[in-house]
């Protein structure tokens, strides 16, 4: 991994990504590159009975990465609230919808339960339906 900016802040950023990559590789040795990072996200699930978003116990840094094995891409939220990280492979069965500033997704395993909303604090927190 290389720094995208010059100077000591660029070196620190690259060093931070190297440390993060090593942590992700302990979880999945096939991860080979971090594509993007969001420093603070929170995951919500959509409750179909109440038609409301409910905050989960998953909150932390979002890493989008490539892998050397199939599936070739995935994302992980390194949970700051517990040791339970959220990891999702990015496959054809994963649906994404951008409702700025929210990223909504639905996976195949929990198609009606596991719809998540990730946000960056400080932006609008107005709930939206999936």
Automatic annotation (TrEMBL):
Pfam family, one: DCP1
Organism of derivation: Oryzias sinensis
GO molecular function, a single term: mRNA binding
Keyword field: Cytoplasm, Hydrolase, Nonsense-mediated mRNA decay, Nucleus, Phosphoprotein
Subcellular location per the Swiss-Prot or TrEMBL entry: Cytoplasm; Nucleus
Classification via InterPro entries: Dcp1 (IPR010334), PH-like_dom_sf (IPR011993)
Gene3D superfamilies per the UniProt record, alphabetical: Pleckstrin-homology domain (PH domain)/Phosphotyrosine-binding domain (PTB)
Entries under SUPFAM superfamilies matching the protein: PH domain-like
Enzyme's top EC category: hydrolase
GO terms classed as biological process: deadenylation-dependent decapping of nuclear-transcribed mRNA; deadenylation-independent decapping of nuclear-transcribed mRNA; nuclear-transcribed mRNA catabolic process, nonsense-mediated decay
EC number: 3.6.1.62
A cellular component annotation (GO) from this entry: nucleus
Domain of life per record: Eukaryota
Family to which this protein belongs: Belongs to the DCP1 family.
Protein name, entry field: 5'-(N(7)-methylguanosine 5'-triphospho)-[mRNA] hydrolase
Swiss-Prot/TrEMBL catalytic activity: a 5'-end (N(7)-methyl 5'-triphosphoguanosine)-ribonucleoside in mRNA + H2O = N(7)-methyl-GDP + a 5'-end phospho-ribonucleoside in mRNA + 2 H(+)
